[in-house]
């Protein structure tokens, strides 16, 4: 019944055609392509600030696409520069253009629409976003990278028909899940810390619950929880703090989310593996994190 309904929805939407072609290399592999004739899209028009992400809602035809481009040295900037130039050459007005922390970091990523993993992947420390419009059409481009690939998302919307609500078919996996499977380690988005503190800031339950669900889905899965710090203070103090962060997260997973102890280990890395420069608070906030490292499956 569900498959029949989906076939009907996407069959009716097969005629939805969008205008902009991304300048992708021949090695690009399309990972997602869904077009809907009557839907709503909340186009981000500025950075996340004051607790909110500014958006403009467009009701009409919406197409969502994603690609993975193998690249041993991925760099998000050149591709976004080419896309921006092509858009302007085709008469688009650039509404908003940002990179990582300037977009609003995790809060922007959480508020903006992102195609679920494994079709799309976003590294919170290195992503770029652009929104543009022309006549009655608007689009957004999101580019990020993993260890050996670029990941590109294009959402195009054309104002027209009234939106048709479609119930979600399945809950999306968090973006870190694909990274953990493919690369063996991943930052657990949604776990943030104050400098010198081992306790996650409020709002950690969603991230912890997602990690717990991933672990409980396969009892053979095991992870090392690794705490990280910014570079404030001595290495010895930060090693202690990072270990405490990892242990605090592991303890909550065991006690509050019923993850078996055999699936968890904890360790601290201090400030020895930064994901961003420690020169400003935005970079330091990215470095105060917890990662999961996938361990060999239990025998």
TrEMBL record:
UniProt xrefs under Gene3D superfamilies: OmpA-like domain
Domain of life: Bacteria
GO CC, any one term: cell outer membrane
Keywords: Cell outer membrane, Membrane, Signal
PROSITE patterns per UniProt: OMPA_1, OMPA_2
Disulfide bond keyword on record: no
Coiled coil regions in record: none
Protein known as: OmpA domain protein
Localization: Cell outer membrane
PANTHER family on file: LIPOPROTEIN YIAD-RELATED, STATOR ELEMENT OF FLAGELLAR MOTOR COMPLEX
Signal peptide from the UniProt entry: 1-19
RNA-binding found in the keyword field: no
Domain OmpA-like, chain residue ranges per copy: 178-298
Primary localization: membrane
């Amino acid at each position: 019944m569900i498959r029949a309904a989906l076939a009907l929805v996407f069959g009716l939407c097969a005629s939805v055609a969008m205008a902009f072609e991304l300048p992708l290399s021949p090695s690009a592999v399309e990972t997602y392509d869904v077009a809907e004739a009557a839907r709503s899209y909340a186009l981000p028009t500025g950075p996340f600030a004051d607790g909110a992400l500014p958006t403009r809602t467009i009701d009409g035809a919406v197409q969502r696409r994603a690609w993975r481009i193998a690249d041993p040295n991925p760099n998000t900037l050149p591709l976004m520069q080419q896309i921006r130039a092509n858009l302007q050459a085709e008469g688009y007005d650039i509404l908003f253009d940002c990179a990582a922390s300037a977009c609003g970091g995790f809060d922007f990523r959480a508020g903006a629409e992102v195609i679920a993993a494994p079709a799309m992947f976003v590294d919170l420390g290195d992503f770029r976003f652009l929104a543009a419009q022309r006549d009655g059409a608007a689009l957004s481009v999101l580019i990020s990278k993993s260890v050996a690939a670029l990941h590109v998302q294009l959402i195009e919307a054309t104002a027209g028909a009234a939106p048709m609500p479609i119930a979600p078919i399945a809950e999306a996996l968090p973006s870190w899940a694909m990274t953990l499977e493919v690369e063996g380690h991943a930052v657990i988005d949604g776990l943030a810390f104050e400098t010198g503190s081992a306790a996650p800031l409020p709002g950690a339950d969603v991230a912890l619950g997602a990690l717990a669900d991933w672990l409980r889905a396969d009892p053979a899965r095991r992870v090392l929880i690794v705490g990280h710090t910014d570079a404030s203070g001595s290495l010895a103090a930060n090693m202690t703090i990072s270990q405490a962060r990892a242990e605090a997260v592991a303890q909550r997973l065991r006690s509050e989310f019923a993850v078996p102890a055999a699936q968890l280990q904890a360790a601290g890395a201090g400030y020895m593996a930064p994901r961003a420069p420690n020169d400003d608070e935005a970079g330091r906030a990215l470095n105060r994190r917890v990662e999961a490292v996938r361990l060999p499956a239990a025998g």
